[in-house]
Amino acid sequence: MMEACKSIPLHNNTIKMASGNIFREVELPEQKPDSDGALFPAVLSPISNADFTSTAKLNGFEEAIKAHKPWLESLLQKRGAILFRGFPVNSTSDMNDVVEAFGFPEAFYVGGRASRTKILGRIYTTNEAPQDKTIPFHHEMAYVPDYPSKLFFFCQEAPRSGGETPIVLSHIIYDKMKEKHPDFVAKLEEHGLTYTKIMSDEDLPSSFTGSGWKSAYMTDDKNVAEERAAKLGTKLEWMGNSVKTITGPVPGIKFDKGSQRKTWFNSLANSYGGPANAEIYDDSRSIEFGNGEPLSDSAMKDCLRILEEECVAIPWKKGDVMLVNNLMVLHSRRPLIKPPRRILVSLCK
What we know:
Blueprint: E1 6-8, E2 16-17, E3 20-21, E4 23-27, E5 32-33, E6 39-40, E7 42-46, H1 58-67, H2 69-79, E8 81-84, H3 92-102, E9 118-120, E10 123-125, E11 135-138, E12 150-157, E13 161-162, E14 167-169, H4 170-180, H5 182-191, E15 193-199, H6 213-216, H7 222-231, E16 234-239, E17 242-250, E18 254-256, E19 261-263, E20 287-289, H8 297-310, E21 321-325, E22 329-333, E23 336-338, E24 342-348
Parallel strand pairs: 7-8
Antiparallel strand pairs: 1-4, 2-3, 4-7, 5-6, 8-21, 9-10, 10-24, 11-22, 12-21, 12-24, 13-23, 14-22, 15-17, 15-20, 16-17, 18-19
Helix pairs in contact: 1-3, 4-5, 4-8
InterPro entries: AlphaKG_dependent_hydroxylases, TauD-like_sf, TauD/TfdA-like
Pfam family, one: TauD
Protein name: TauD/TfdA-like domain-containing protein
């Protein structure tokens, strides 16, 4: 059954071409109003008389993106994420063309913690951990200074049940955590965070942070790995073929100039291994305040709860493309209940 869809005005920003309007904003039941009352995320579909029903029309979508990139970027900055639904994006090659149409520089996954495989061009697999496992909320690569500013997700095969990619506005988490745990947030702002991880030489596909150091630093040379890690503010301590990585202190809160708001820019939820998160992560000291002080389990318990309460989880449909502002929005993954599921990703500066 198709979800209820309702066209809504584009707040005087309707995109027009010579042949007429191209995009229309629609409402989905899962959307939530943001702090300013606008629905999160923005959802764009073709207007009813736009012939975007065949792969041959992909060029029309690409040209619309190129022609109206400033408007789309403005919408992304205002809303945090845009879901494009109903456009002719059917293959990995199509998705790569869409990414190229936006023209954002590519961001590389150096120092990344997840196992990923390049598929084609700028398109990679998402986290290759077993899909029946939860991946907690995080900003992509928040633990290093050179993180992507934008993410594209592409649904090549839609799950029959489960497997959503929930998203949540980061400033809302900051505001609610500051209200609930002001001392915790004050320490986070003063001291930042230090992330610690043990990496083997090879990938561990069973873990959502299972990237081996050879994959993470894109080399099998320890000296080269040390050089690349140092550029990311990471110290490597070798343990035979494995390595202990220590990154930080790095900020746990950032000020987003575009929105003029503080954001919960960190990987707390998917790095913390205390009692509040023990079912997902088992390393209790994988993350701590930058001064070495352990995190409060009660604060983390509330953080995890708030993330779930405030998030939006729209079930995937084949051909969906979701563009996410990584500075404004955290994302996660819910367990897959009924396969198949194939979600691909592209990281951009």
